[in-house]
Amino acid sequence: MAEHSNAHPTRSAAKARAAREAMTLRPDYALDLPVLEHAEAIKAAVRDHPVVVVCGETGSGKSTQLPKLMLDLGRGIDGMIAHTQPRRIAARSLASRVAEECGTRVGSGVGYRVRFSDQTGPETRIKLLTDGMLLAETQADDRLDGYDTVIIDEAHERSLNIDFLLGYLKRLLPRRPDLRVIITSATIDPARFSQHFDDAPVVEVSGRTYPVEVRYRPLVEQSEDERERSLRQGVVEAVDELAGLGRGDVLVFLPGEREIRQCAEALRKHHPPHTEVLPLFGRLSTAEQQRVFAPHRGRRIVLSTNVAETSLTVPGIRYVVDSGLARISRYSYRTKVQRLPVEPVAQSSADQRAGRCGREGPGVCIRLYDAADFEARPRFTDPEILRTNLASVILQMKHLRLGAIERFPFIEPPDPRYVKDGLKLLDELGALNRRQNLSRLGRQLARLPVDPRIARILLAGDREGALDELLVIAAALSVQDPRERPMDRREAADAAQSAWQDKRSDFGGQLRLWAAYREQAHHLSRRKLQAWCHEHFLSHVRMREWADTHAQLRGLVRDMGLTENTAPARPVAIHRALLSGFLSNIARREDGGEYVGPRGLKLAIHPSSAVARQRPRWIMAAELVETSRVFARVAADVRPEWIEPLAGHLLKRRHRDPWWEAGRGKVFGREDATLYGLPIVTGRKIDYARVAPAEARQVFIREGLLGEPPPDPPAFLRANQDLIAEVETLEAKTRRRDVLVDHEALAAFYDAALPAAVVDGPSLDRWLRDGGDDRALRLDRDQLMARGVTEGAADYPDTFDVNGVRLPLRYAFTPGSEVDGVTVCIPVAALNALSPEPFEWLVPGLLEEKVVTLIRALPKALRRHFVPVPDFARAVLESLPTREGSLEAAVRAELRRMTGIDIPGGLWDELVLPGHLQMRFEVLDEAGALLDSGRDLPALQRSCADHAARDFRAPADSSFERTGITDWDIGTLPERVPFVQGGIELQGYPALCAEQGAVALRLLDGPERAAIAHREGVRSLLMKRFAQQARHLRRGLEGLDRMAIDYRDVGDADEFKRGFVAAVFDQVFLAGTVPRDRASWLEICEQGRTAIIPHGEQLRDRVSDILSRQKRVRRALKGNIPLGMMDSYQDLRQQLDGLVYPGFLLDTDPERLADLPRYLAGMARRLERLQQDPNRDAAGLAAIQPHQRRLDEALARHARRAIRDPALAQVRWLVEEYRISLFAQDLGTRERVSEKRLARAWEAVR
């Protein structure tokens, strides 16, 4: 701090001193004031001590007389007499009073200076000013050399400014021994001031007071609602009690406006009309407040907040009713909210309240609480420094370089938590740098004599090009709301002011009101402007104060070099600037409708706000105040995207979920940002290398270099990937995880080899472009293999050869996944050429494990014969001569050969093999796209049948594609023809095909399909060659129509006739091998030419017998069936349907067709005997059912797997013979049959 000395005044200071010395003031003393009784004691104390404390009740004359006493001491010449007041209105009114009593005018010998208004001159000796203004002057005059005396008035209020001034003066006095400080206080703890200034003398000046009787009338505390009712009732009863004591007005102290309104209503209803009930609180209009001081008749009851304790003296008060409660402003450093809780007042406040009724005579005070409650209360109210935000004080202290706040000589040092909170607010506003000193912005904020938040929005207004509007709003926020809402005219006031409301912003409403006022002020006279304000329920005084504040702020910002915008600013710019000052006053509406503010604070928009009805998603407020709950006052709708640019230094950012994007070669992640717990940014995609390069590098290595590479990988990476793929394939084939070194080792290799600056694809490209050597980044096979592999390549081939088609194999070692094991890739054109059996053998490297699994899956009774299982599995595979047909059948046969133990067929049908022990199939279209996949080849053949038929195409030049064939002029047909389609070698199978009455030569995609189609095609060609005979069989054969009638229970008559003719041609011409060359064709034509009609007549007789017998059996199986025979009848129906069914003539071998009448006769015989001896039939049924069930399961299994097994057909007819032996033995069997013979037959089944 700069040092100045009064011994060497500057030229301007000397002129000022001369002007003051020339100013003669003649104080006029009112001798009846108590303070003047102690005038000499006060003057003596001031002469002898640098600090004097003058203590006296309100009304003792301290404020008006002390400056005049200082004049008597010759003070006010070397410097002015500074006389501070807590409020501007008091400074102005006292200046007028003192000037009048000193015989001068305001602005001459006596002046005042308040914020934005300076009414002083060079000759001014007594200067009334607010305590805040004296603090502001210390910025330019840190020693207060402009003053020789400082009177700190109303020090008992212990405002923040007063405590700051007292601390400042304590530091200053040792350097200004000529300076005198007088501290005035009501009778509230004067000793504390004395102690602070090294036991400064205290002069007590007693006011004119009378004895006050205190009566305690406590209220019963219950729930909050009952307390309020009790409070109203208690006030009414107390006033009734006081009314009985005599004339005089009553002053009732209540905690707030709501309680005043409720009690006023209760008193008006209770008391006679001549009793006047008046409210008194800060938000009243000036006219309503002045009614309290106006003369009146009758009794007056004044209902007041604590404003009437010391600030205002209400005349005529003889009685006081004290609720003992007040709203005390308390800042919560936890929630950052200025709370206004209702609290019990301190003892000193209660005494002040009681003293209000002892000014004009003896008084009575009724306290609505008991004496014990009074004694338990604290002696004094906490000073403001212990219950407010300290940001403004800290800002000024740093600006004045007064050192750390913790070491500043406050009367009571603030709580360190409040200091820390004040620093946080300054940091929020950008006023501090990293060293906690003032930033450039902070120094600008300190130059503006307003709340730091308001100063911040002015600076932001300049940046946003909205300074003109922000000056208006800043001024509005610096003064009391000019809008009035009289208790009895609230609706009218709301209607009059509705035109200025902005539903999205109360700040916008302030701008509208300002524009309307300025427009009227421009056109109207002063009196008419006052009338306009009155008409619109506006305080003209406060509107003038708003205008004055605006003018002064405007001058200040211009002095700072800020520029007002000439064009109207956009609302977005205005609100962004406001947001810079109110970042900790934002809130977000949750889905449930409640607003949540900073740090989880639950709040609501104040009902007086125009925004309350709109309920926007995000709001900001000029202040958050807690009364009945936390309210946001003066609110506006804001957009969350405005917040981040303003609050970047305050946001808590969380970066999460990094991922690798191969397409862009970069690591991205998500960013969340919160401001005091509110989500400002959620899940924004970011370049992760920018915010977390080390973590991004690891993701790049693990997911990029070792996972999905960039679009154009560098040469070293391509080489490494090829090498890794080779080793991974070897692992998949051998189903081991210990061949390739683990992922961590590979990641560590790259981490060690890559420069630290490489964190993603672009940075890797830059390093390589700038000459980086990639040799250290190239892996070799030894580095990749953790251990060697002994298995041969032949055990795990890369292709699978079947039916002349070479199919690629792919290996995967992913247990539990759908692709685990060996996958064969099948072009859909080759699909139908395949059968499941070759794939049962998998690849040699997995075959032994599969056989072991099959043996171990056997029932224990069987499995015990094959121990140790691995040895038997190896022996089975070593002894198998070929690996063809069904693996399961081959294993069963070999185990039976080795041990004599028979394993029934189908025993493994229900076994679910591990995925890698079943071949997996992928069916691909011509472009290589996947059509379907799975481990059930027949199911894939069914699902892809249309694709397979469409994609299998014979070569364009193929000689095996012809239509309209009427004779064998096609040469010799080979069994199969190789050709290339889509770059893949396929096998085609030539066959004659019957197509809608014609015959064509086609190249088909599978051997079995071709065999079936060729038989039908040759039959169709034969019918064309012998068309006359075929027509005779169909139309002229005697008895065929009758047979068709008997067939109606089985199928369609026309279908039967077609099948009959086809069966005749099959039995005559195609009983042997189906011809594939012309010579064979001519041979069968010649051999069978004359046999068609005779064989047709022979077959007619046989089929006629079959159909008539089945008709009789079928009829016998109908009707009512005894319950005990239901199983037998069901078995007979199943047997009949298996013998005679649509198409049975073509399906049944001619030799077996001859046996059908015997089987049907056996069924008839069984039905007869069933009626006679059901128990015997049940015994036969028990013997046949296991074989029948096994047969049904085997037939279904073979059909599902597309297997044609002659051994199974043999078993099928052997079961029929077994039925004859059980139920109609007298009919005889074709061959010997028994359980043992059946068991041997089953052994051959695949």
From TrEMBL:
Gene3D superfamilies (UniProt xref): 1.20.120.1080, P-loop containing nucleotide triphosphate hydrolases
Species: Spiribacter aquaticus
UniProt-listed Enzyme Commission number(s): 3.6.4.13
Keywords per UniProt: ATP-binding, Helicase, Hydrolase, Nucleotide-binding
SMART domains in the cross-refs: AAA, DEXDc, HA2, HELICc
Residues in Helicase ATP-binding domain copies: 43-206
Keyword Nucleotide-binding: yes
Database matches in InterPro entries: AAA+_ATPase, DEAD-box_helicase_OB_fold, DEAD/DEAH_box_helicase_dom, HA2_WH, Helicase-assoc_dom, Helicase_ATP-bd, Helicase_C-like, HrpA_C
Enzyme class: hydrolase
Alphabetized PROSITE patterns for the sequence: HELICASE_ATP_BIND_1, HELICASE_CTER
GO molecular function, one term: ATP binding
Domain Helicase C-terminal span(s) in chain numbering: 234-401
Keyword Hydrolase assigned: yes
Protein name: ATP-dependent RNA helicase HrpA
